[in-house]
Amino acid sequence: MIQNPKRYTITAALPYTNGPIHIGHLAGVYVPSDIYSRYLRLQGKDVLFVCGSDEHGVAISMKAKKEGITPQEVIDKYDGIIRKSFSDFGISFDNYSRTSAKIHHDTASEFFTTLYEKGDFIEQITEQLYDAKADQFLADRFVIGTCPKCGNEEAYGDQCEQCGSTLNATDLINPKSTITGETPIMKSTKHWFLPLDRYEEFLKAWILVGHKNDWKPNVYGQVKSWIDGGLEPRAVTRDLDWGIDVPVEGAEGKKLYVWFDAPIGYISSSKEWALREGKDWEPYWKKKDTKLVHFIGKDNIVFHCIIFPAMLKAEGSYILPDNVPANEFLNLEGNKLSTSKNWAVWLHEYLEEFPNQQDVLRYALTSNAPETKDNDFTWKDFQARNNNELVAIYGNFINRVVVLTNKYYNGIVPQPNELSEVDEATLTELKAYPAVISSSIERYRFREALGEMMNVARLGNKYLADEEPWKMIKTAESRVQTQMYVALQIAAALSSLCEPFLPFTSTKLSRILKIEDKIDWNTVSTNSDLISAGHQIGEAELLFAKIEDEEIQKQIDKLEATKTANKAENKIVEPQKEAIQFDDFSKMDLRVGTIIEASKMPKANKLLILKVDTGIDVRTIVSGIAESFKPEDIVGKKVTVLVNLAPRNLRGVESQGMILMTTSAEGKLVFVNPDAEVTNGETIN
């Protein structure tokens, strides 16, 4: 670990521009990295926080093919949506770039050329998967098959999303082309490989020994598993038509592998920032007194902890990451988030439905962050955290302080009198919180840090509840001056301490308290006079609004509609049965009937006993529909009956026929009946 770094370089994983940003991205990468960056800036640190759109690779090509547009149209569309989402949620990047930018193409090409000229690559002709029907080699994401490690039948050629294993396309069992559905063949092609096995001893010393005690267990464990399994050369080029050209002779038609080019995007984004700001980018990537931290999701651990460090080591002039605090995955209402299945809460849609409530989502995602294990986002939990914590604790405290200050002193901070032991103890406890919160943030425990920040609001609520200035004002006005002064110091401290987590709330609270210059983080630790006597504050405003059940139900219904649509889209239609003759069909006597009585079969969960008027007679039919329909709901229902089915005894009741049913897209039973009024006994031909 680097002690007392002179500067910080913070990177956030480059989002693919094949879709918008959803809450999983925000919780896993962008809110944690923003909290860390904002906190360091409040400490007065030199911070460079970079990111950018990842616009190359197979994901973009797949999206373009699916939508019938060019890759350029795909990246331009989603880059705009993503940038706006990050801006709207207050993600405070110093620079957000694009890997399609010339500065990135130049940087990635130069990096490859440096390693090539040093002889760090292995040039090999290998057998790769080829789709003969599409007449193209299949890059990783154009292949799907069975994972050799966990048996998942929908693993991609670069990674199994079920077990997290990183794969090569040729590892898959029963591979299929996602372009044509054909089984690919093997065909020879030339590629350049980074020999990871050469860096195995370096990686063991650097990570397994050097970072054994400070890297998160989930990160360390995955890296150890990979290294223990033995590292092998990995191709850094691909046969693709979209990406950065491989800058060597004999590589026509080949592109840099996206996982070679994308991490270099952090460097090119830093260069872009430096050019704009008139600064030197190199100290942020090459000076030993710089602390480099990568914020990523768990699916990117291998690339950021093994492949990219091996690239940096091979180049020779770059520093290595001090930490890679990767998070686990966030699920949504019990199911894995999925862009392709639209199972997500999209940030741009969230702001349309919850305007000006960015901090509510930031709070909910941080307090439920998947820091050590996969966690689940539910709309009910989101509502509870807003109503029971932000509104009832934080908002309630600030509202009481501001309302009482305006009521008693016309909004002017009162001059305190002699402090009591309780006052002294409260202010002493307040001074301790910056260090407590700092400790959690610097260990990348943002959920814990958020809890400590909320404890400051709890401290304020407890102080007011114990001191009861609204009662004391009647008997000891001078005492109330001190009480309100102390409470206002807590409110002022919150305007600074909440800023990394709730930046919009921090701005709003500072405006209410009329604090023009942001209170320095460390000042809260040393100064009891954060907002001085005689200072004029503003009128009370609600920091947070209660979220009603109707708003939450709307979101739950929206997800249910998505689930229904997915079921309908993915519903497997039974194949046609073997052919029959007309005489086979004409043997069936199908009639329109009406259910006139219905009751449950004793001691049977699935069976209903029905009395059906078939037009021929009234007969008993036993039907296995009890789990789908209540008896009283189907009396009077028109049905289609197979009346000449041989009788069958079911639990002592003779059933004389069969009711025709089908299932809806959601899997619910549905009666097959005529769409117009037809009398009982009419035949179906």
Write a structural description.
This protein has 685 residues and is of the alpha+beta class. The strands form eight sheets. Strands 17, 18, 19, 20, 23 and 26 form a six-stranded antiparallel sheet that branches. Strands 3-2-1-13 form a four-stranded parallel sheet, sandwiched between helices. α1 (23-42) links the parallel β1 and β2 (47-53). α6 (217-228) crosses α9 and α7 (258-277) packs across α9 (301-315). The termini are far apart.
Fill in the keyword field for this structure.
21 helices, 685 residues, four-stranded parallel beta sheet, alpha+beta, 17% strand, six-stranded antiparallel beta sheet, flat
From the alpha-carbon coordinates, what is the Rg to the nearest angstrom?
A: 32 Å
Secondary-structure-derived class: alpha+beta
Task: State the total count of DSSP E strands.
Answer: 26
Tally of individual helices: 21
β-strand percent reads: 15-25%
Poorly predicted spans: none
The share of residues in helices is 40-55%
Mean pLDDT: 92
Distance between the ends: 81 Å
In one word, what is the shape? flat
The largest pleated sheet is described as: 6 strands, antiparallel
